[in-house]
Amino acid sequence: MRNDDVALVHRALADDESAFAMLVEKHQKQVHALAWRIIGDFHIAQDITQETFLKAHQKLVTLKDPHRFSGWLNAITTRCCLAWFREKRLNVQLSENVDIATRHNDPYSQYLVGEQTKAATQELREIVKKWLAKLQESERTVITLHYFDGMSCEEIAVFLGVSTNTVKSQLSRARQRLKKQELLVRSGLDDFQIFATLNEATKTERNIRINVSVTKENGEEIGKGTGGLKRTDAQLGLTDYNFGWVGNNPFEYLVTTFLGTSMTPFLLKYPTVVGKTWIQEGLWHSQAETTLDGHEHIQASAEVFPMCLKHKSVLSDAVPDSQKNGHTHMTVDGKRYALDFKRDNPVNGTRYLWFANGIGLVKMRYEHANGLTTEAELFEYRVPGKIEESLPLQIGSTYTYKYHHVYLGERVIEKWRVTENF
Fold this sequence. Notes:
elongated, 2 domains
């Protein structure tokens, strides 16, 4: 059956309308049954079935894997049902005296629809986040890679270094665990189509979390924490970070790879076109002028990376709020530290980042205005290699960086692990 779908999809993409008609005939009962189960009204489900196939015909070119046509069709059906629920709710909330036709053309009503859609998507995201939190980390990883990143069980197995049967077992256990606990899943979203529904939203917005640990080469811990980023169609930027340090002077550790990268909140703006320049405020109110400066081959400990995107930021005029008489203070974990700002300020200077397509950050060099230079390179990594982006940061990805710490005077190991990306 799946092979038949593949052949029909290819024929339909070649403008064979009879092939798409055969796909409609083959799957219309499945689509109607799903819509009827979600909506609870036979006749409305018929309308949604027609809308589903109309959208499927329009978007068929976006289907990446024809083998998954049936699941893709179910995802479109579910989205149409959710849109119907949102529209029904909006109709109740707006005045009963407003003519329906006018309502649909009124800019304010369209604004309300948009806001309601955003609210519904965010509500759905929070529900899924709550579900994912109930899973073991291994199950959460395979669920996210499968439903949000569209990876097959075979692809996930290669990435994680486990057998395909292990991945299938983890997916099955995760589904069963959630179906036992969540009424919404039990009541009709078969085969976990709610994840497929959210997949479209995550294409335009991703919330990412990274765990970071920093140690000396002998294994002695320096610090650890987490960082959050948001990826949209327009940009990728830092939203928060929270670190704890071991030792007497945490200021020295601001030049670690992750925090050095995070001196500017927006790492990338899309599309990533060489020559693009933007101005933003960096750490300590500095001004940062960032340019996508070209492509270079980078030799790192991990391997040679061809055609890496070169990212250059010039940071200047950094002045912390607490500066006084050339000194400033930092409070970390409840302790207050006095610092000579002119001597210790690592913010002003020029920072270079190199990103390998489909992998991420492979090298950082920070030429500080105080004459010191921090340089880090990728030592080891594990990524799916599926998404063609400068910094994909898919869940389960790990990065290990190695560098000589200019303040500590010794080599440092820093590890990133992506724990959330949806």
